[in-house]
Amino acid sequence: MACSASSSATSASPLSFAPSQSIPRLSYAATASSEGSTSHPVPPARGAHQRKPVEASLAKLKPLFDKKVRVIALRVPAKEVGTIKSQSAVAASTLVVPKLSSVVRDGSIGNAQSRLILLKHASAGEVPQDITSLALERGLQLVPHDIAIGYDWYSADEVLSAILPEDDSKGTPTGYTIVGHIAHLNLRDEYLPFRFLIGQVILEKNPSTIRTVVNKLDSIDTEFRFFQMELLAGEEDYVTTASESNCTFTFDFRKVYFNSRLHTEHNRIVSLMRPGEVVSDVMAGVGPFALPAAKMGCVVYANDLNPASYESLVNNAKKNKVEGGCKCYCEDGRTFIRESVKRAWRRETASWAGPKSSKQLNKLGRARRMGLQDGEMVAQSSGEPATKPILVDTAPPPPSRLVDHFIMNLPASALQFLDAFRGAYRSLAQEIGRQALDEAIQQKRQSTSRSVQAREWPMVHVHCFTKELNRPYEDICQRANTALGLSSTHPDRLIAPSFPPSAAHSCHTGVPIEALRSEESATPEVSLHWVRKVAPNKDMYCLSFRLPASVLFDE
What we know:
CATH topology of the largest domain: Rossmann fold
Region (Disordered): 28-53
Keywords: Cytoplasm, Methyltransferase, Mitochondrion, Nucleus, S-adenosyl-L-methionine, Transferase, tRNA processing
Catalytic activity: guanosine(37) in tRNA + S-adenosyl-L-methionine = N(1)-methylguanosine(37) in tRNA + S-adenosyl-L-homocysteine + H(+)
Organism: Pseudomicrostroma glucosiphilum
Subunit structure: Monomer.
CATH architecture of the largest domain: 3-Layer(aba) Sandwich
Number of strands: 19
Strand content: 15-25%
Distance between the termini: 94 Å
Strand order of the largest sheet: 13-12-11-16-17-19-18
Low-confidence stretches: 1-12, 30-48, 503-520
């Protein structure tokens, strides 16, 4: 039967699971408060670590999040929960709230075998008539039930929205990047007084994934790209491991640059490679392009000027079992570009077809123990005739002597390094002879596995920034042409399409992009891919193009 409260309810009272409005907000300045004031002192914007005082302050705030939300529940026998809940009227009114079960045990005395189906109504008067009729028909009861929630139930965003100074225009500073076990924040200046509290809340709300919370202090180092950081909460452990593209990368986050938000771009670039191709990664970092490419069977020459990145690159190549296909270097980018052309010719990386699977290794080990040679027949099990040939350790064909792809992921300055390609083949020809080089180019031209263009000249994928938001394509191509030494009238100059395929991805929808040229006038194989918004007036792009012979021979 229905509870008597149903007849006394006169108006609907919407359910609210939001934190109480009575929770005091922190103030921007730690000032002496008047009697009865609820302001809280906060740590200074800069200075000594204040994590312990913040933890104590947060502990005092937590009880203020305790709250009870009264709902109406349908009391049913435990064995009938599935049947009753499947009724269309009940299903339509069942409470659906994240992290809350819609069916709970009945805590009232004498109802141990009952369950409560929680409804999304605050009073019995709101319950639809068909549910009331169902309760009367089946002898069920509509009863009030209090849902107890507290600090642990709320998300980091909800907690910080409740206690930080209210500023609807800028939102709550709960956005961060996760790199392994490290959460990396980039707080605006107005939130610096509360940075330790913000860090502690994020740490507590992600106990299974985050152990360290840091905040970026300064701009990225101009040479090595890493930045100074401040520990906000958790362990002072900066050596972390990130997983991406079926590879793992271990590094010291304080000493290298790694942005997990670029994993889609890493995958996109690697997807342009083909097994057996030769790849030169000029600014490789810890290997987000180089290692996946090597794993798929590319021969890779990887470089980074930062000694810490180079050390991680070497270790990660071994950890991912691709050291046989990925040679690592620690050189200036321009030097590496010119040297990698020569290294590829000398085949400093041996034949490589990617790491062997466990099944392949087991089969190879078995064959070696049996003393078999390449192509001998081997039985699948004892007592069976030998019917299947086994390749004991057949080496893949030698790699190409010419680089197929150059990757340049240093957005702040990579375009400037394009000048290193000017005369790169002319320098190689002086060392090996022009005839030998021409013969190698002719062999690529005769290949049937690639397009006509791809048979001859290498592709370059260079990341860059632009602030010319209304003409990004022309701006990037102009800067690239300048570095390549191609004048505005040179027949091989880079001309971008009017609207590259990724133009629609740009988030600057309020800024019109000028259509400067028609598609027909664009340089073949020139691609401009929008990667991400870096700042309100700065975007990151990737320019891909095929190096013309006039640049490689500096003709």
